[in-house]
Design a protein that fits this description.
The chain is mainly β. It contains 1 helix and 9 strands; from the N terminus they run αβββββββββ. About 15% of the residues lie in helices and about 40% in strands.
Length: about 120
Amino acid sequence: MYKILVSLMMLVSLQMYGGTTSVDAQAEKDVKLEKGNSDKKDRYPRTLIPIVCVYVDGEVRLTLLEDLGEMTLTVTNQATGEQWSAMNALRLQTSTASGTYFVEIVTGDGTTYYGTYTL
């Protein structure tokens, strides 16, 4: 049931943000998020993630499945260290350069969600 809900939310969010049915496969990347601290082993397996994250044409887009309160979205190019960050943003302009990017979302209560995507 959760996978169906997430799939529907992603479809709705892509349509809301101007997604098209003929998006180039290189232009769109799903970002699989995990919950926990990326530097530690205390991750939360099988935890439902209340965020759908996708990269589309130089922009990271979030769809929230529940109210998370305040949050900070940060994207870092792992090769160059270049970083983009915004508070309470559902869309963040980033780079279109090839490479691996680290996405981190920290909520006001300190909960961390993170993932990577590669262009």
